[in-house]
Task: structure prediction
Amino acid sequence: MPNPYSRAEAAAHVIATRLHAAPKVAVVLGSGWVGVAEGLGETTAELALVDLPHVPAPTVQGHSGVARAVDVAGTPAIVLGGRSHLYEGHPVDTVVHTVRAAVLAGCTTVILTNACGSLDPAMGVGQPVLLSDQLNLTGANPMCGDEPPVGYPGRFCDLTEIYSRRLRDAAHVLDPTLPEGVYAGLLGGSYETPAEIRMLRTLGADLVGMSTVLEAIAARHLGAEVAGVSLVTNLAAGMGAELSHAEVLDAGRSSAGRLMTLVAGLVGAAA
Ligand code: 8IG
Result:
């Protein structure tokens, strides 16, 4: 098994040869965000995510499983319709693999989207929220393991501005009412208990989910500018009704127009 960076280089090569030779922005679409891909612009090439080397078969509903090259108002973007999660049993290097590949293929901006639970009743179902920062509570980190190979930055990467202030400012110009929040990324597998949600609130979380935090670290390590946008699809445990995955997919469908404008705006702001 080659090291995780060689595996990402192999996938980057396929992105460059089969999708776009010079992509600038990578967009990862989480649950509830699939509808955004079509509206962003003209798809100039596409392939199944599993056709990228070392990408595992998807197991989560609500992901298209397609990687597209999309021209977003003149900016060449790679739109990844799905991701892998720790809770599926994948190792951390698999979870961050497509993001690493996109950055190695030339993307200097990574836009990570997800569906999440909200700990703040003022950020209700259907509300998009810009990530201002994160709590990586997964117990994993893509910078663990062997030291990155020669030619790559070392492991202790600076995460002071994990989510770009510049990109958040650009999003606020387009939509001044967009709230910002701190995303707590958990291992997942189940939703939380009400006691865990109280704990997370004490820790400073506004949002809770099972993705994104590891990808954001891996993208920053490779020097990309990162934006994160969560779509609130439920109030966290103990704050409202019981939680269901169907609710997640519904919330995405009804917010699709607003989400698309937001992602297009972030792509347009990419350096
Ligand atoms: I959508 O309430 C979605 N994903 N951990 N908790 C966690 N993940 C989520 C939640 C939630 N809602």
